[in-house]
From TrEMBL:
Reaction(s) catalysed (UniProt annotation): 2 R'C(R)SH + O2 = R'C(R)S-S(R)CR' + H2O2
Region (Disordered): 26-50
Domain ERV/ALR sulfhydryl oxidase: 46-146
Biased composition (Basic and acidic residues): 26-35
Protein name: Sulfhydryl oxidase
Cofactor dependency: FAD
UniProt-recorded Gene Ontology molecular function terms: flavin adenine dinucleotide binding; flavin-dependent sulfhydryl oxidase activity
Compartments, record wording: Mitochondrion intermembrane space
A Pfam entry, by short name: Evr1_Alr
Alphabetically ordered keywords of this record: Disulfide bond, FAD, Flavoprotein, Mitochondrion, Oxidoreductase
Classification of source organism: Eukaryota, Metazoa, Ecdysozoa, Nematoda, Chromadorea
Source species, domain of life: Eukaryota
Class of the enzyme per the UniProt entry, highest EC level: oxidoreductase
Amino acid sequence: MEIRTEDGRPCRACVSVGDMLKKGREMAEKFKKGEPSTSTTTHKDCPADKDELGRATWKLLHSMSVYYPDQPSEEQKQKATAFMTSLSELYPCDFCAKDLRKDLKEEPPKVQSRQEFSQWMCRLHNKVNEKMGKPLFDCSKVFERWRDGWKDGSCDY
Ligand SMILES: Cc1cc2nc3c(=O)[nH]c(=O)nc-3n(C[C@H](O)[C@H](O)[C@H](O)COP(=O)(O)OP(=O)(O)OC[C@H]3O[C@@H](n4cnc5c(N)ncnc54)[C@H](O)[C@@H]3O)c2cc1C
């Protein structure tokens, strides 16, 4: 099944598996009415959908923020900001990237320290959570979640 952006580019990273299943059900209905489906997918190593890509990207972004230097050099500050700007230009889900550009304008990256950058990243993610109607993450737990593991020891080796 091919998903396309509004301007016609193929974009699996713009839809979730849930969206695709919905589309699949619509196709099944069409099939019942005599229009054959062409889907024969059996691979596990398929291109990332919107949610898989999102989870992987947040994993990188939060990890980057909690390992960011406590006292970054000017160059590191510039690179952190430039990374987020580039992401907002190149992120494959086009409407996500558009909203990210808006979010970065509203609150530009805070990169003076690890604490600042990791909290800023958490707020950025919470903006997306809020937009999607998901629960907000408690930003005081960002180091437990992304660097040290939970205090109950459940992530210890
Ligand atoms: C920059 C960016 C913009 C996106 N924009 C959109 C969009 O506009 N529309 C859309 O449909 N999807 C968007 N996505 C994808 C979306 O955010 C989710 O990644 C996707 O829906 C999968 O959600 P999930 O519930 O599996 O967990 P995710 O939201 O991917 O979260 C992964 C894990 O991060 C942790 N977490 C959650 N919130 C926070 C937080 N605030 N701080 C720290 N850790 C946290 C939780 O442990 C969670 O399990 C975007 C992704 C990125 C990276």
